[in-house]
Amino acid sequence: MAKNTVSMDKLISLAKQRGFIFQSSEIYGGFAGGYDLGPLGVALAENIKNLWRKKFIQERDDVVALDSGILMASKTWEASGHISNFSDPLTECKKCHKRFRADHLEEDGVTDCPECGGELTEPKQFNLMFQTHAGPTQDKDSVVYLRPETAQGIFVNFDNVLQSSRMKVPFGIAQIGKAFRNEITFRNFIFRVREFEQMELEYFVKPGEDEEQFKYWRQFCMDFLTNDIGLKKENAHFRDHEKEELSHYSKSTTDIEYDYPFGTKELWGIANRTDYDLKQHSDHSGKKLEYRDPHSNEVFTPFVIEPSVGVSRLLLAVLVDAYDVVEGGRSTTTDANKEEEVVLRLHPAIAPVQVAVFPLSKKKELQDRAQGIAKVLRADFRVQYDESGSIGRRYRRQDEIGTLHCVTIDFDSLEDKKVTVRHRDTMEQERVAIEELTDYIKESASNIST
Ligand code: ATP
Fold first, then answer.
1. pLDDT computed for residue 1 by the predictor
2. Which of 81, 366, 389, 440 is the right S-S partner for 393, CB 3.0 to 4.6 Å?
């Protein structure tokens, strides 16, 4: 199995320097398990989410969107089983009092404290939901939870969506939104965080057609990752859950795992949740969440197939997958002490910047012309204008953030109305007529495969 050799330290430092990801509350020493997206991180995450919306909602006529609240009636979580079941086994070192996930230590074959070698306590179950209070009094009746998954907002709205949109089974409801989990251990940058966005689809099907649909969605998700997001095929794998690992609500579950530098881990969970959730909410609320087949009049509780992925976990896979170190450097311009250069080979659909525009020198007439060209390109592309530093340095900055094309305006441009376009992956440079620039870049981006 292919293993990723990207250095996480270098990736984390690039992510900070270039404004992808910052540690939360850094000036106060940091907030464990929290990260903030910087300007390029926001752009990358938005591009990933838009692509998901396009593939999972816009291009289909059987999926509609929903945006439900983070806070919900607490009964939701009683019905879903989260109050009684949503927990991880926690163990504590008797010597240094650090806490760990017992299941993670077991996976790593560790029996003593990994920090100091001390003896560990027997694991205790620890509920992962964050609690707060709604209203002025703080008692057990005012307890509310920050949702640990977006899915339940979909299930409780099943009938609202069905009645208002007149969808027919099989159909899906999709949602992107924040979820919160009071995770205990953090090791791998943004892989496991306390506050994250989920992209979830709940796809409702007729019982009996569930396993076929499950297989369909599993492959759909893999295709999305490797064709649309552009992850390398050899780094993403299916892993079917064994019967003993299945959640209480699940008939089958497959994880799409990714070869992160710190190990092969779950990126995307695809589960056949059966009719568990709709039945639980029907029982607890008294409102029957069922479907009547318009042709046969048969009434049934649909089964549901759920592909669920975290935006930040996918963003990390995207960064790791695109991160390429060129030993000895690749610049055409020489720069002393340059040992290695980084190229972020992002897929054109998600690269935060598609075109960078540079005036060759600080001469006003070049800057004005370059800014004019940048303005025109902005109608079609995500553009960054940069006039500081040598051209070689500007190319390197753009390579590090995955920019596909750099356009340089020089003195000849004023005469021959042409500019130099430099390509990220091949470093080839071509003179292109300004009036053909938009078409040229579109054509070139469509030919880039990662
Ligand atoms: P894990 O075993 O890694 O804790 P899980 O099996 O509990 O994950 P699910 O409940 O299936 O995860 O959540 C669906 C998806 O949400 C995961 O595949 C992952 O992409 C994302 N996710 C879950 N927990 C986190 C977290 N703490 N930080 C970031 N993403 C998360």
1. 45
2. 389
Q: What is the CATH number assigned to the segment(s) 353-449?
A: 3.40.50.800
Helix%, strand%, coil% for the chain, nearest 5 = 35, 30, 35
Q: Using DSSP, state whether 428 is helix, strand or coil.
A: coil
User: What single letter denotes the amino acid at residue 332?
Assistant: T
With bands split at pLDDT 50, 70 and 90, how would you rate the model's confidence at 186?
confident
Q: Which whole number is the average pLDDT over 103-119?
A: 90
Architecture of domain 8-71+149-320: 2-Layer Sandwich (3.30)
Q: Where does the pLDDT of residue 328 fall: very low under 50, low under 70, confident under 90, or very high at 90 and above?
A: confident
Give the binding-site residues of ligand 1, using a 6 Å CB cut-off: 181, 183, 192-193, 196, 198, 266-269, 308-310, 312-313
pLDDT digits (tens, 9 = 90+) for 142-152: 999 999 999 99
Ligand 1 probe mutation, 313, 315, 316, 318, most atoms within 8 A of CB = 313
Q: pLDDT digit string (tens) for 248-289? A: 888 999 999 999 999 999 999 999 999 999 999 999 999 999
H or E, element range at 112: none
What distance in angstroms lies between residue 192's CA and the mean position of ligand 1's atoms?
Answer: 8
Q: Where are the domains of the chain?
A: 8-71+149-320, 353-449
pLDDT grade, residue 332 (50/70/90)? low
- Is the sign of the CA dihedral 231, 65, 309, 1 positive or negative? negative
Q: How far is CA 431 from the centre of its chain?
A: 37
DSSP designation for 389: S
Pocket test for ligand 1, best of 196, 248, 250, 256 (most atoms within 8 A of CB): 196
| Cα gap 449→401, rounded to integer Å | 17
pLDDT in tens, 314-325: 999 999 999 999
pLDDT for 185 equals 81
Distance (Å) from CA 310 to ligand 1 centroid: 7
